[in-house]
Amino acid sequence: MSQSPILRRCVACKKLLDRKCLLKVTRDFQNGVVLSAGMGRSAYLCRNESCFEEALKRKRLQKALRCDIHSSVFNMLQKQLNTCIDSDTEA
Ligand SMILES: [Zn+2]
To answer: Which residues line ion ligand 1, judged by CB < 5 Å?
Structure first.
């Protein structure tokens, strides 16, 4: 079974990238805005500081998710920058 990468678009630079290399922010219908979890409208962001700053400055994630995002979410995002770990250990 070969799996082709699932491509998602970064909200800051608009590049299509493998979902594994992006941070996922979801507006969960119950829990509000969460990272890498939840069900609902999602937005993706590259794991690099320029995209993070672009998203922060221009409120790209807020616009994509159509809601406010608490600064704690941005703090969590920032901690996960530059960590493009391939979490697929099954291969
Ligand atoms: Zn980007």
So the answer is: 10, 12-13, 46, 51
Domain ranges of the chain: 7-79
Output the CA 36–ligand 1 centroid distance in Å: 16
The closest of 86, 81, 91, 73 to 52, measured between CA atoms, is 81
Q: To which H or E segment does residue 26 belong?
A: strand 22-28
Q: What is the pTM of this model?
A: 0.85
pLDDT 10s digits, 6-41: 999 999 999 999 998 999 999 999 999 999 999 999
CATH superfamily of 7-79: YlxR-like (3.30.1230.10)
